[in-house]
From TrEMBL, chain A:
The lineage of its organism: Bacteria, Pseudomonadati, Myxococcota, Polyangia, Nannocystales. Residues 139-164 are annotated as: Disordered. Residues 17-131 form the Aldehyde oxidase/xanthine dehydrogenase a/b hammerhead domain. Residues 139-148 have a biased composition (Basic and acidic residues). This is Xanthine dehydrogenase family protein molybdopterin-binding subunit. PANTHER family: DEHYDROGENASE (PTHR11908:SF153), XANTHINE DEHYDROGENASE (PTHR11908). It holds the Pfam family MoCoBD_1.
Length: 739, 164
């Protein structure tokens, strides 16, 4: 078996030697450079743009603005990408209207990057400001159900029972409001696009994207091009986390300039401009829980309002998890979005679940405190054995094992219940825990494969590699299916010339693209078996795929003593130099829709709080994950580590700060927007519990990109409460909130 | 109006990954942009251009620096080592191998900076514990959160040194 074992990344050597090439690193002989000019007001209109001084510089080729940009697609639907929410997407350089601070209003193109940057500073944008609103509390009353149209969004389920009456009647109640600010993804690679104009006028585009097909289709629709005129090639992405799900404005601007100038163009955003893209929305939530004195939940109310822009209804699944995670007869879940004069939010690692579970899992901890119960015992008391909202079973749910194995690894039984009861020298110690949940999903994807007589296998699908290890796990799956060493397999991705794959998001690549790779390898197996059956005295006569196994570059009967037949011999016999297959994997909806499929986790955290300084240090974390079958424990562990680190950032550091006077994010750099650094991250113990699931997809995997972060912020906040007796309900937990 | 600095260039000599280069560079060109745009050494990454993320870390005369904060003309005569210059032919630098062994990266974008920074760290000789590694590597951000694996990788590369 090749899957299930730890494997080094097959792209590891390229990444440690600097050979992995990212979107802004491709070149072309006549390449010119574009630098974006953004606006500094949140709402209003452009009165005029004076680019004369910039244009007067030798080497400056053009300054594109709404005044000289060509008229392009007219309908909103041409501008709406695969994962756009409902509304009217941003049309850069379309007209004089300013919809948010940081909106791109000009692109300066010059022969060198330095010259373009210098010239961009010379462009004068005269604006007329209109009043703006960037305070969520001021617009909460305007919260509305999001317009339809965003893929993956499910409106909250209908109320079950009578939650408010049950809450009023419950012997023990907790009720609180939780809030977290807008959070920017900040992948290390800034968004970038290199557009290479080929000799025939076609465009080869290297775009930082989580979906090459999404970028390709967007460019085709907006610029009125056919898909054979545009090819998007992105073999490596320097982190996405959701920020690359939608085409970002540098793609549009680079293509615009390349077409107008008939030159190859590169546009790279600055780190400051990365804060003009989407973000995890600012969200306020109210959770009310009612319970019997033994801890049995009687009522659960969860209401959330997240911000969106004025022109699109970004939405995410914040509250549905609360109806699924715990058994409770009376629930009422509500969600709305409220518009601010900011850019539209965009999915950020575990969108919705991170937000909802931060509130729910804090509230459960508050209830445990009110009941004087162990927080883990309270969760086990209310463990849901089926999906009450959809009245269907779980395809698998090993959360109980996460709780048990995680608690054992952490030593949870040694926790003293009372807040402020554990100390280490001058520091207050706190132990907290929380649950995580994320939806296991599969989307249609295709793959092709070419097996050559020399025993090499080339498999390809237009998926992405934002860092999870796609190249590696796909190579493992293919190698295992055909009994080849991994070194004999090459997996190719990130190119619209390859068979289409689902956009890389939602932890669904392993399940979706993996299933396509599995399917195409099964097709090869089938062809090889057929060919082997035509060999003289074939031991495979009358046998099916279930009777044979591919091992050590050969085919053999699963039972019996017959010798294996080398794949090379089968192909030689058939007179084939190569064997090609293509396959599509489509989710078995008839079966999958009868079940609810989720990944789960239990997160245990120890913090040390210095009450004199208000500082919180995470000392250790145990994350126990039920994520179905684990294809590569090495890369899988890394995914969970990354999620936990994101959770530490969310809990203690990250905060996109709005200056409401200016209506803009003001800490727009990595010196002031704090993400965790080496010194902030302790030992993180990741364990995967055994979980078999033959419903979710043919591989039995659930995806790991999101589950690692979910619940971490609540676990840390709960640990801070245990350490200090202070319940912080507004993230991040910075020292000002503890002093 | 400012003079257009790109018009004038200065002659400098740089040794880059062992090769001596005589270059005419504009005074406003950073060492980072020189490496990436002019010399095609895109292994060195631009993450913030403000010295806040460490992705552009290279070794100048053996010392780790943020190449985005240095103009190329300031380094006339210096010897620069980038991630492309760490391996000896096909043989990876022990840190490069340790990064692969410990899965010390995911997307790979911060990796060249982490590697060059770690080479500099080992040369400085101030780190012997994991906590010291964490402290002295904190100028290199990794948004994928590979930190525990990076610390383990650096620890592995340090071990022979410790026993020596």
């Amino acid at each position: 078996m090749t899957t299930g074992k730890p494997h080094d990344r097959v792209d590891g050597r390229a990444k440690v030697t600097g050979q992995a090439r990212y979107a802004g690193e491709f070149s072309a002989p006549d390449l010119v450079h574009g630098v974006v000019v953004t606006t500094a007001i949140a709402r209003g209109k452009i009165v005029r743009i004076d680019a004369a001084e910039a244009l007067a510089l030798p080497g400056v080729l053009q300054v594109f603005t709404h005044e000289n940009a060509p008229r392009l697609a007219w309908r909103d639907r041409s501008w709406r990408d695969m994962v756009a929410p409902g509304g009217s997407p941003l049309r850069p350089l379309h007209d004089a209207e300013i919809q948010f601070s940081g909106q791109p209003v000009a692109l300066v193109v010059a022969e060198s990057f330095e010259l373009a940057r210098h010239a961009a500073g010379l462009v004068v944008v005269v604006v007329e400001a209109a009043p703006h609103q960037t305070r969520l509390a001021e617009v909460e009353a305007e919260a509305h159900e999001p317009a339809r149209g965003k893929k993956g969004y499910t409106p909250p389920p209908k109320p079950r029972g009578r939650a408010d009456e049950a809450l009023a009647a419950a012997p023990v109640r907790v009720e609180a409001t939780y809030e977290h600010p807008a959070l920017h993804h900040n992948p290390m690679e800034p968004h970038a696009t290199t557009v290479v104009v080929e000799a025939d006028g076609n465009l080869t585009i290297h775009d930082k994207t989580q979906g090459v097909g999404n970028s390709r289709d967007y460019v085709c629709k907006v610029f009125g091009l056919s898909t054979d005129q545009v090819r998007v090639v992105t073999p490596f992405v320097g982190g996405g986390f959701g920020s690359g799900l939608r085409p970002q404005y540098q793609l549009f601007l680079a293509v615009l300039a390349a077409r107008e100038l008939r030159r190859s163009v590169r546009v790279v955003l600055t780190r400051q401009q990365m804060f003009t893209l989407g973000y995890r929305p600012w969200t306020r939530q109210r959770v009310a829980l009612g319970a019997e004195r033994d801890g049995s939940l009687r009522a659960l109310v969860h209401e959330a309002v997240g911000n969106t822009s004025r022109f699109e209804d970004y939405c995410e699944n914040v509250v549905p998890w609360s109806g699924v995670l715990y058994e409770c007869p009376n629930t009422r879940l509500e969600y709305g979005v409220a518009p601010l004069d900011l850019y539209t939010p965009i999915d950020a690692r575990a969108p919705g679940a991170v937000t909802g579970l931060w509130a729910l899992e804090s509230a459960i901890d508050e209830l445990a405190d009110a009941l004087d119960l162990d927080p883990l015992a309270l969760r086990l008391r209310n463990y849901a054995e089926e999906d009450q909202d959809h009245r269907r079973p779980f395809s698998s749910k090993a959360l109980r094992d996460c709780y048990r194995e995680g608690a054992a690894r952490f030593g949870w039984h040694r926790r003293s219940r009372a807040p402020r009861s554990m100390r280490a020298g001058p520091l207050q110690i706190g132990w907290g825990m929380a649950t995580g949940i994320w939806e296991a999903q599969q989307a249609p994807s295709q793959a092709k494969a070419l097996l050559t007589a020399d025993g090499r296998l080339h498999v390809a699908s237009a998926s992405g590699e934002i860092g999870p290890g796609t190249y590696t796990i796909m190579s493992q799956i293919a190698a295992e299916q055909l009994g080849l060493p991994i070194a004999a397999v090459r997996f190719e991705l990130g190119d619209t010339a390859l068979p289409p794959a689902m956009i890389q998001g939602g932890s669904a690549t392993a399940s979706s693209v993996g299933s396509a790779v599995l399917a195409v390898c099964k097709a090869l197996q089938h062809s090889l078996l057929k060919l082997a059956q035509t060999m003289p005295d074939s031991p495979f006569a009358g046998r099916g795929l279930d009777d044979v196994v591919f091992l050590d570059r050969g085919l053999r009967l699963r039972s019996g003593t017959a010798d294996a037949v080398p794949i090379a011999a089968i192909m030689r016999h058939a007179g084939l130099g190569s064997l090609a297959e293509q396959a599509t994997a489509i989710p078995d909806m008839a079966r999958q829709s009868r079940y609810t499929s989720n990944a789960h986790s239990a997160v245990f955290v120890e913090v040390a709080v210095d009450e004199a300084l208000g500082t919180v240090t995470v000392k250790r974390v145990v994350s126990a994950v039920a994520g179905g079958r684990i294809l590569n424990p090495k890369t899988a562990r890394s995914q969970i580590l990354g999620g936990v680190v994101w959770g530490i950032g969310m809990a203690l550091e990250e905060h996109s700060m709005l200056d409401h006077g200016l209506g803009r994010f003001v800490n727009h750099n990595l010196g002031e927007y704090h993400v965790p650094v080496h010194a902030d991250v302790p030992e993180i113990d990741v364990l995967f519990v055994e979980e078999r699931d033959d419903v979710v997809n043919p591989l039995g995997v659930k995806g790991l990109g999101e589950i690692g972060i979910v619940g971490v912020a609540a676990a840390i906040a709960n640990a801070v409460f245990h350490a200090t007796g202070r319940r912080i309900r507004e993230l991040p937990i910075t020292l000002d909130k503890l002093l | 109006m400012l003079p257009v600095m790109g018009d004038e260039t200065c002659a400098i000599t740089l040794k880059v990954n062992g090769a001596t280069l005589r270059l005419q560079v504009a005074p406003w060109t950073t060492l980072l942009d020189l490496l990436r745009e002019r010399l095609g050494l895109t292994g060195t990454k631009k993450g913030c251009d403000h010295g806040q993320c460490g992705a552009c870390t290279v070794l100048v005369d053996g010392v780790r620096i943020n190449s985005c904060l240095s103009l190329a003309v300031m380094r006339d005569g210096a010897s620069v080592t980038t991630v492309e210059g760490l391996a000896e032919g096909e043989a990876l630098h022990p840190l490069q191998q340790a990064f692969i062994d410990h899965d010390a990266f995911q997307c790979g974008y911060c990796t060249p900076g982490q590697l060059c920074s770690a080479v500099g760290l080992l040369a400085e000789g101030h780190a012997s514990t994991d906590d010291q590694i964490r402290e002295l590597m904190s100028g290199n951000l990794c948004r994928c959160g590979a930190y525990p694996n990076i610390v383990a990788a650096i620890g592995q590369a340090m071990r022979p040194r410790r026993s020596a």
